[in-house]
């Protein structure tokens, strides 16, 4: 590996570890070496620091310096899309597709379709997604990528009031070869869209079952949490918005810390709309593994202000934090 490759690997390791400042320093060093990857690293670091405007500015400089690097164009499209600049995002995806290797065009097309969906151009998004699902390179992109593409197609059908087509799309998933395990994150979104399709079709039982399965796969999915709230379709004039600190006991040792030790305790957070703490805890329990549910308890409840002029949101879980695992006696502050 070259020095630039080593620096890129180091920068990505810093980004993965949540240290964008160190990655940014490496990116600037790479820029001084006239290496195009410098722009990618710096942009990702700025994005991780929530400075999307600077991330876009860096990438615009990058594509001016290295117009044949498709990864820079694609990342520019992604970030412009995140900022709601959809025509400019689409221009970037078109440029990326023009210079990407054949096997990578499928990835560009997926992101292009996603931006068109966000923009509300469902017809163009479906056409672009056709290119993804019909690509001879689709299988190379991996099972998780295919699941993401299926979830997007289902979302498009649901958004256009075609739940039967969304359900048929889900049923077609087994037709794709399964060379790897896929992703709980992607599959949670697939099942969430399936739940929303069943809800539109009037099959409330299947809607609830699919939503519960989705949150068990990945409870941090906004789509899965929304599908679960929509499946229940429950509102109450006496409900409250609460931020909860929840404690519990994990069900197995942590392999990467002490595989032979006792299962750890954990603490996490939830934002919930419920009538009282007992109902809130029942809603929280649905998002946790069955093995820990009996151990759950609410350690703290913090009321969240709600505009009295607005209708109370649907009851259910709206957000959940990461787990903090610890052993008795550990300092968990």
Automatic annotation (TrEMBL):
Which SMART domains does the entry link to? Answer: TPR
Pfam families membership: TPR_8
Q: The organism sits in which domain of life?
A: Bacteria
**Name recorded for this polypeptide:** Beta-barrel assembly-enhancing protease
Provenance organism = Pandoraea cepalis
